[in-house]
Specification:
Radius of gyration: 20 Å
Number of helices: 12
Largest sheet: none
Strand content: under 5%
Shape: globular
Length: 278
């Protein structure tokens, strides 16, 4: 028994350290290789990789649910296809420069964040099939998945080279990095079933949501347009520039959806078994 204790006590630390090392190496590469940051290759690769993990993880979650094979396939298609189309539509809008200042008469980015996110969350949380899947899958999956949030470090890199105002980059980038760094340690604690693990995961979710709200708000207030109130002498242009704009256009909405699903899952786990069954 004594030999098992160090493993449980250090695994969250090791998870944090591993995430921190990978993030540090990637961030150092962005600063050391200007062409890497200018090309946006890291954002493109990371975004595609996360999407593949999300749709494959959806199937993995469905494989644990008490559903027939036909039900699993239909449910996976009902989730993966719209998610991919949403991703593709956001990517096309960003790539065609429609989020650049003055490209449209309306603030398109806030609409892309609020409208689809609200619709998707309502549909998913009202679905009994999704509730069945959430009850079957491990609670730490949805938490650990968001380790990808460290990608927000690109805003800090942009600030360091002078292309993004600090009033946006520092809160948004730092909040994203903290959320991403703490995702795996929180997932490890949750998977171990330690006392207070659900409370820790709830706090992590709330912090992650607050980070996104702050980032979106500051992005709107610092980007040229009718909502700009800050950084008037050094406006924020990266939130509309390809490919960085794919982060607020798609990563932010899907992250909010993942937070909503995780909170629902954790809330059900925290309730007495008889209540959940009812």
């Amino acid at each position: 028994m004594a030999s098992d204790s160090p493993t449980f006590s250090t695994s969250p630390i090791l998870a944090f350290a591993a995430t921190a090392v990978v993030t540090g190496l990637w961030f150092s590469a962005l600063l050391a290789i200007p062409g890497l940051q200018d090309s946006g290759l890291s954002v493109v690769v990371a975004r595609i990789g996360v999407h593949l993990v999300e749709i494959s993880g959806t199937w993995a979650a469905l494989s644990l649910a008490p559903l027939t094979k036909a039900q699993k396939i239909r449910t996976w298609l009902a989730l993966a296809v719209p998610l991919t189309l949403w991703h593709g539509a956001a990517w096309a809008i960003v790539a065609n420069g429609l989020l650049l200042p003055g490209a449209t008469a309306i603030p398109l980015l806030p609409l892309m964040i609020v409208v689809p996110t609200a619709i998707v969350i309502v549909l998913l949380l009202r679905s009994r099939r999704i509730a069945t899947v959430l009850d079957a899958m491990p609670a730490h999956w949805l938490v650990g998945l968001q380790a990808y949030r460290v990608i927000g470090a690109v805003f800090l890199a942009n600030w360091m080279v002078g292309t993004t105002p600090g009033i946006f980059a520092l809160p948004a980038g730092t909040g994203d990095v903290i959320t991403g760094l703490m995702a795996l340690p929180t997932a490890v604690v949750l998977a171990g079933g330690r006392q207070g693990s659900i409370r820790s995961a709830l706090f992590w979710n709330l912090f992650g949501i607050a980070d996104l709200v702050v980032a979106v708000t500051l992005g709107a207030l610092t980007t040229p347009g009718p909502l700009q109130q800050l950084a008037l002498d050094h406006p924020n242009l990266t939130t509309g520039t390809y490919p960085t704009a794919i982060i607020p256009a798609f990563t932010v909405p899907t992250s909010l959806v993942l937070h909503a699903l995780s909170l629902r899952q954790l809330a059900r786990r925290a309730r007495p078994a008889a209540t959940v069954a009812a």
